[in-house]
Amino acid sequence: MNALTQFERLDEMFPDVFRRMIRPTLLNAEPQRELRLDVTENDKGYEVRAEVPGATKEDIRVTIDRNFVSITAEIKQEKEEKFGTGSRSLVREIYRGSTTRSFSLAHEVDDKAAIAKYENGILMLSLPKRSEGASRTLNIQ
Q1: How many CA atoms lie within 13 A of 93 on its CB side?
Q2: Is the overall model pTM greater than 0.70, yes or no?
Q3: What is the largest CA-CA distance in the chain?
Q4: 43, 73, 87, 103: least CB-packed within 10 angstroms?
């Protein structure tokens, strides 16, 4: 077994451990937090649930362009707490900063009828499909 195969097997067993160790050193910056999504579809539209912990509804922006949806959130930096004199932070894993997640859907969204709600760190989007009558063929004169 070569060294690459051994690393691949370890990466499969502990995927997040290696990414957390390597990413900050390679980029020399705090890694961006990826928004996690659940997307479901029915005949009338799409339902999206996105985890956006640490943000307020004023810090979240959702844009819709046809079938392309983008969610952007600003998670504000809180001041560092110290416990007692001379203490220091050893681990800071709670993400603070901005994050974006974009995705395409199979059908165009009726952006005028779309609804967004935010509660307990979960953004819920109701994205109705645009009716088939929205497009038309022009008569040539």
Answers
A1: 5
A2: no
A3: 82
A4: 43
Q: What are phi and psi of 34, to 5 degrees?
A: -90, 135
Residue 29 carries which DSSP code? Answer: S
Segment 16-67, tens digit of pLDDT: 555 555 544 444 444 556 789 999 999 999 999 999 888 889 999 999 999 9
What whole-number distance in Å separates Cα of residue 57 and Cα of residue 125?
Answer: 13
- Pair 108, 129: CB distance under 8 Å: yes
d(Cα 131, Cα 29) in Å, to the nearest integer?
45
Structure tokens at 4: 């690459």
Q: Which of 141, 117, 101 is nearest to 57 (CA)?
A: 117
**Beta pairing class for 115-119 and 122-128:** antiparallel
Report d(CA 120, CA 9) in Å as an integer. 37
Give the whole-angstrom CA distance, residue 120 versus residue 50: 11
